[in-house]
Structures are given as structure tokens and as C-alpha cells.
């Protein structure tokens, strides 16, 4: 029996590449686990967290508990609820669209709020070594030699948090050129975009099959 925590952050449901690739990954894990998997979901793309709660929870961390206001108590409770979801997971799937060359504000807010819980502050090891997958979708291309090489300011930041701050055993699956089909200037990149998408689904499938080895040690 294993628990997967899945966090989605695309602001759309229909046509979302990050959700579609994560679906492939999730299905592969669930299938490999033979039905004994619970998937706990949180969708901050369509149901964002309240921004003020992060600030209230952060400031509560600098004050004695007996002085906390009602707002601070509620914010700490929300942070604890989010942290519980991560702490209870045997594996994590986090999806991340690239917005305005950076991380989704909703995803950043989730991270900032979780970090206010003492179990996830820098230096803690609550989920150290657990398998995690970051599924990134980008409209353009950012590879070496492309005009916008270095403009993806989301992926490196997310790696920093998930790998270096929380110590997760992270696999990153990136899909680029997702806007090729709807952007006339990217018409000549459509075949490449299709190939990259197929490759991402393949990577997700094989990553999903292999994670079970980590969840359930081979006898
Ligand atoms: C508000 C907004 C801002 C975006 N900014 C960028 C960007 O800066 N660079 C980029 O390559 N794509 C950008 N995109 C395109 C998304 O990265 C692309 O559609 C991606 O596939 C989104 O993930 P999703 O398919 O899971 O929704 C943007 C899309 C939206 C809606």
C-alpha cells in the first residue's frame, strides 16, 4: 500500500500538457502497484491557496504561540494541512507550467506556505530520499543554443527546493514547445513538439514503472 501526493498548478484543465504527462506517470505508478495506491490530490492551479495565509503563517513563526492571532492560528493550521499531505506521501508528483519565464505564482505560494510548517523549513529532513517527479511544461524552447536559453527561471528554482531544501529523490520530465500547434511563428517546430511530447509520455511511463521498486523494496 502506498500513497502518492499529486500537486497540479496549471491554470487550465483542458489541453494542459503538464496534467496529461502527469496522468501518464500516475497511471503507470498505480498500475505497477496493482491497485494498492491512494492518490491524494491538490490543485492550486484551479483552486489557489489564500495569499494572506502565507504571510500570517510566516510571521507566526517569529512569535510565541500564545500570542498568535486567530488569523495566524488559521494560517498555521492550513500550512500544517499542506505539510501533512507531503509528509504522508511515499512519492510525489508535482506539475509545473512555465508562466512569464518563471514559476507559477500559485505553485510558489504553495511552496512558501509549506515551508512555514516547521517540518519543511530549510535544514529539515521530513521527506528526505523519497521519490518525487517534477513535470514541467513550457510553451517555447529553452535548450542550449536557442535564443531563449537561460530564460526558464522555473525549473532550476523548483529543483533547488525539491532536491536541495527538501531532499527529495527527484526526476524531472520536461516538455517544451507546447505552444507550437497554436503559434503560427512556431509552425516549423510542430513535428519536433509532437516528438518531444511523445518522448515525455514515454519517460513518464517508464519512470512510473520503476518508482515501485523504490516504494516496495525488491525481496
Ligand atoms: C499566463 C501564461 C504565461 C505563459 N508564459 C510563458 C512563458 O513565459 N514562456 C513559455 O515558454 N511559455 C509560456 N506560457 C505557455 C505555457 O508554458 C504552456 O502553455 C504550458 O504548456 C503550460 O502548461 P500546461 O500545458 O500544463 O497548461 C504561458 C502561458 C500562460 C497561460
Please outline what is shown here.
With 219 residues, this protein is of the alpha/beta class. Helix content is 42%, strand content 18%.
Secondary-structure element series: EHEHHEEHEHEH
The domain tally reads 1
Biggest sheet, open or closed, and with what strands and sense?
A: 6 strands, mixed
Count of helical regions? 6
CATH class reads Alpha Beta
- What is the second-level CATH architecture? 3-Layer(aba) Sandwich
Oligomerization status of the protein chains: single chain
- On the 0 to 100 scale, the average pLDDT is 96
What is the CA-CA span between the terminal residues? 16 Å
How big a fraction of the residues is strand?
Answer: 15-25%
- The name of the CATH superfamily reads Flavodoxin domain
Small molecules bound in the structure, each named once: flavin mononucleotide
Radius of gyration from the alpha-carbon trace, in angstroms: 18 Å
Class from secondary-structure proportions: alpha/beta
* CATH topology descriptor: Rossmann fold
How many distinct beta strands? Answer: 6
Helix content: 40-55%
Describe the global form: globular
Low-confidence stretches: none
Describe the protein in words.
Helix content is about 40%, strand content about 20%. With about 220 residues, it is α/β, with parallel strands linked by helices. It has a single domain, classed as Flavodoxin domain (Rossmann fold, 3-Layer(aba) Sandwich), CATH 3.40.50.360. Strands 1, 2, 3, 4, 5 and 6 form a 6-stranded mixed β-sheet that branches. A hairpin with a 2-residue loop joins strand 3 (about 90-100) and strand 4. The radius of gyration is 18 Å and the shape is globular. The two termini are about 15 Å apart. The model has no long low-confidence stretch (mean pLDDT about 95).
